[in-house]
Amino acid sequence: MEADPSMVADQSLRRFLDELASSAPTPGGGGAAAVMGAMGAALVSMVCRLTIGKKDYEAVEAPVRRMLDQAEAVRQRLTDMIAADVQAFDALMGAYKLPRSSDAEKQARTEAIQHALKQATDVPLDCASACAEVIELARQVAPIGNRGVISDAGVAALSAHAALRSAALAVYINVPSIKDADFVQSRRARLDSLLARCAADNEQAYETVVGRLG
Amino acid sequence: MEADPSMVADQSLRRFLDELASSAPTPGGGGAAAVMGAMGAALVSMVCRLTIGKKDYEAVEAPVRRMLDQAEAVRQRLTDMIAADVQAFDALMGAYKLPRSSDAEKQARTEAIQHALKQATDVPLDCASACAEVIELARQVAPIGNRGVISDAGVAALSAHAALRSAALAVYINVPSIKDADFVQSRRARLDSLLARCAADNEQAYETVVGRLG
Asked: Which of A47, A100, B15, B148 counts the most CB atoms within 10 A of its CB?
C-alpha cells in the first residue's frame, strides 16, 4: 500500500528508515537528502536558540536572531521537499507508464516524460540551493555562536553539505535523458556553482568549529 | 516534559526535526549523526534489495546478499544509537548536577563525571565505527549494484561520511575534559584511523557512482 507522499514527514523515524531500506523506489536518496538538509537547518536553529539571551553572547544577539529566522524558513522548505521528491519520482514513473499504441500517444508520452524529468531535476536542485543556505548559515554562526554547543554548527554544515552532494547525484541521473539543451546547461551551471562554493564553506565551518573545541 | 530517550526513533520525522531545532540540548548533533548513519545503511540495503533477483545482476547476487545482511545489522545498531546518544548526554548532565558540599561528595561527583564523559565519548565513537562499515558497504556495492538505483549508493556513502565526521566532533568535545590519558590516546588513535580511511573510501564510492550515471 502506498502512503500519501505528503505524509512522509509524519511517519516515525523508524518507519522512514524501514521504507528507505525497502525495495520500494521511494523514499530514496532524494528524500534522504532533504532530511539531511532539514537536520542541518534544525541544528543551526538550535545553536542560535542557545546563543540568544545568554549574557556572554549579547554582542552577537542581533545577527544570530536573523540567522535563526533564516534557518527556520529554510528548514520548513527542506521538510516540504521530503514529500516533493516522492511526488516528482511518482510523476516520472507515471509518465513512463502512459500508453504508446498510436503516434499521438507516443508523442504525448514523450512530452509527459520530458516534463516529469524536468520536475525531477528541479526538485533536487531546489534542495541543493536550500542546503547551500544552510551551509552559509552554519559558516556564519560557527565563529560567534555559543561555544558550549558549537559542535552542532559543524554537524549542521556536514549534514547540509552531504545533502547538497546527494541532491547533485539526483540531478546527474536525470539530465542525460533531458532533450532541452538550454535547460540542461542552465541547471548544470547552477549546480556546479553551488558545489564549488559550498565545498569551501563547509570546510571553513568545520575548521572553525574544531578550532573552538580545542 | 522530557520524552523517554528510547522512544526517539518512534517520534515522527517532523517532531524529531522540531526537537533538534529546539533549545533542548537533546537530541543534538550526536543524534543527527546516528540518523544520518542509519539512512546511509538503509540506502545500501535498498540498492542491494533492488539488485538481488534481477536477471542482469545474477553474477553478483551472492556478495550483494551478504552486503544486505551486513547493512541491515549496522542499520539496527545505528538506529539504537539515536537513543544511546540522548542517554549518554543525560547521564553526563546528571553527573554535573550531583551535590558537592563535602569532600566525599566532590570526589564522587568527579568520578561520576569522568565515567559519564567516557560513555559520552564511546557512544559517538561506536557511531563512527558503524558509519565506517556503511561507507565500506557503499564502496563495495557502488561498482556492482543495480545501475538504475546506483545514485543511492552514493547518497549512502555521503550520508555515512557526514555522520562519521559529526561523531568525531562529539568525541573532540569530550576528550579535553577526560583525565585518563591512556583512554584519550586510544580513542583519538581509533578515530583518526577511521577518519583517514573513510575520507578516501567515500570519494571512491562517489566517483564510482558518478561514473556509472554518465
From this structure: A47
Residue A32: which of B155, B176, B206 has the nearest Cβ? B155
**CB neighbour list of residue B27: distance below 8 Å, 6 or more residues apart:** B8, B16, B19, B20, B82, B85, B86
Who contacts A42 (Cβ-Cβ below 8 Å, separation ≥6)? A71, A75, A156, B17, B18, B20, B21, B32
Triad A127, B30, A146: Cα angle to 5°: 85
Nearest to A159 among B9, B43, B166 (CB): B166
At B46, list the grid cell.
535498498
CB-CB neighbors (< 8 A) of A43 in chain B: 20-21, 28-29, 32
What is d(CA A103, CA B182) in angstroms, rounded to the nearest whole number?
75
What is the distance between the alpha carbons of residues B93 and B75, in angstroms, rounded to a whole number? 28
Q: Is B59 on the interface with A (CB under 8 A)?
A: no
Say what the pLDDT of residue A101 is.
97
Please write the tens of the pLDDT for every residue from B48-94.
999 999 999 999 999 999 999 999 999 999 999 999 999 999 999 99
Cα-trace Rg, chain B: 20
pLDDT above 80 (res A87): yes
| B23 contacts on A by Cβ (under 8 Å) | 46, 49-50
| β-bridge partners, B12 | A12
pLDDT at B25: 84
Residue that has been written with the C-alpha cell 548513519 in this structure = B37
- Write the DSSP symbol of residue A82: H
HEC letters along chain B? CCCCHHHHHHCEHHHHHHHHHCCCCCCCHHHHHHHHHHHHHHHHHHHHHCCCCCHHHHHHHHHHHHHHHHHHHHHHHHHHHHHHHHHHHHHHHHHHCCCCCCHHHHHHHHHHHHHHHHHHHHHHHHHHHHHHHHHHHHHHHCCCCCHHHCHHHHHHHHHHHHHHHHHHHHHHHHHHHCCCHHHHHHHHHHHHHHHHHHHHHHHHHHHHHHHHHC
C-alpha triplet A76, A80, A82: angle, nearest 5°: 125
Give the angle subtended at the CA of B57 by the CAs of B55 and B58, to the nearest 5°.
Answer: 70
Long-range CB contact pairs, A55-59, < 8 A, 24+: A56/A146, A57/A144, A57/A145, A57/A146
For A209, name the nearest residue in chain B, comparing CA atoms only.
Answer: B169
